[in-house]
Amino acid sequence: MGIQIMGLMIMFLLVIFYWYNKDKVCKKNHFYQYFLILNYLFFFFDVIGEVFFPNDVRVLHYLFLIAIDLGFTFYVLHHYIEEKYSYQSSLLEKKRKNLVVLYGGVFGLEGIFFLCCSKITFFGLSFGMFLFMVNIFFFLFVLIFLGNKMKARDDFHFCVLFLFHALGAILEVHFPQIGFSSISCVLGMLYLYLTLENIGIEELEVLRVENAYQKEQAIDKISFLKNISHEIRTPINTIDGFSQMIMDNDDINSIKKDVLDMRIASRDLIDVINGMIDLSIIESGELKIIPEDYNVYDMFDSVIDIVHAKLRERSVELEVAIEKDIPEVLWGDSERISQVILNLMKNAIKRTEKGKITLAVRRIKSDTLCRLKIEIKDTGEVISKEELERIFSSSFSSFEGNLNLAVTRYLIDKMNGSLEVDNTYQGGNCFVITLDQKIIREHQDKSKRKEKVLKPFLAQDKRILIVDDNKLNLKVASRLLMPYHSVIVEANSGQECLDILDTDHDFDLILMDDLMPGLSGTDTMHLIKKIGRVDGYYIPVVALTANAVSGQREKYLEMGFDDYLSKPIDRYELDLILKKYLKGNLSK
Description:
Layout (H helix, E strand, L loop, with lengths): L1 H19 L6 H26 L4 H28 L4 H28 L4 E2 L2 E2 H20 L5 H23 L5 H18 L3 H47 L4 H33 L7 E4 H15 L4 E8 L6 E4 L1 H18 L2 E12 L3 E10 L6 H7 L11 H12 L3 E4 L7 E13 L21 E5 L3 H11 L5 E5 L2 H10 L5 E4 L8 H15 L5 E5 L6 H8 L3 E4 L4 H13 L5
Parallel strand pairs: 4-6, 10-11, 10-12, 12-13, 13-14
Antiparallel strand pairs: 1-2, 3-5, 5-9, 6-7, 7-9, 8-9
């Protein structure tokens, strides 16, 4: 009796301390409340029972043990539904309510069944202990199959409490006069209060560090957004400014020069956006390198053309030294290699007001591999030691001002290459890229080299359907197709496209935007393909989309599109598509 009274007093003090200091509300606190109240009620009625109903107090013990065990079982189930429906808040709340109702129903039925059959024994055990053992096996079954959803750090303490109660119940059977159930309850709740509810010095230090880190991250994000805002507004200012001047300009030669500058600014804007997209993909861990056959000289020619355009108004000389005996066709991700070279070249242009920028490419060739050593040198402002440390750090969110260089370093690592800074270079900066590429062919047939001059062919007898919800995009696509003299039909939505095809499916090509309201381009394409299988006609459908992240081409082809063309539309890429589907001889 003395043990029960002392336990009641301790539990009463725990209740007072808990609600007095209760400044945290989370899932484990709610379960602590449940176990605390349950233990307190057990002790209270246990003392009353010892005084007034000494012969029936064992009934209370068994009901208490059943309630404890059911509580642990539903604690594990609670973890499971939170994990499974964490992103469906309304459904999660409904599942929680169902769990509470289920718990109340199971405990109520077991309680009624227990009270009606308390005198029966099973396998040498009293009915109460038998029910408790059944609940333990059910709890262990749930724990085995769903326990992987639990977090060890948070839930270890509840497992310890479960062991306290189980051990107390077993000892209570053999030594009923000592009151081991009461002792295990007190020790278990004290343990939970001292470990789970009271945050120790170590945890407070962890919280302090986490709060400081979050504040730093918030400051870094603000700085990052300011830099990105500057990077975006700069080319937009160029595009908008020249647009206003062109409106008042009648000199066609001057207009052409302004338009060229606007194109350069638009490419800069695309580069900034692509850098932000790459950053988000990198942080999600989903960036992939997609290797394929490519002509190394075509790749370098494209890079050099872009650099020449950017240097048009600068007093900066571009020197190119590419060894002539590099194997022409290599195996690698040419898009990513071009990106890292351009990023470093743009960094050189940004820092060099006058002088010289050098692109030098050397190779070390073995039987199957070609090691490319690419050097980008400039005579501009030397990058500080602090900025170099940021470039070669692993953090992106705190990177200031030169996001492209951080992305470049990551891409090179992803391609199993290396990026170094030549500290011995005097008078500027020198970045050195080393990449191993598999050799496919030493030489490529000249007929398969990409044409550098746009030569639109006449296709008066061809009909093209363009589908896009943006009227300006429709206008741009139609204007780009004008030199081919094809018949152009426009549709503003996927449904309008299907309506047109219902009455007229005599088209040679469909250019389909993907992200449209209502029926997406992908959904529309699937319906067109389905109709084609029934009616026996075939129209190639090309995905025309601003979703130009690396790897999207392969994804769209897997979804069923015949080909892929990214926005903004490149006239040379469009010409290749038209040659492939309107002439049937794609130039590679």
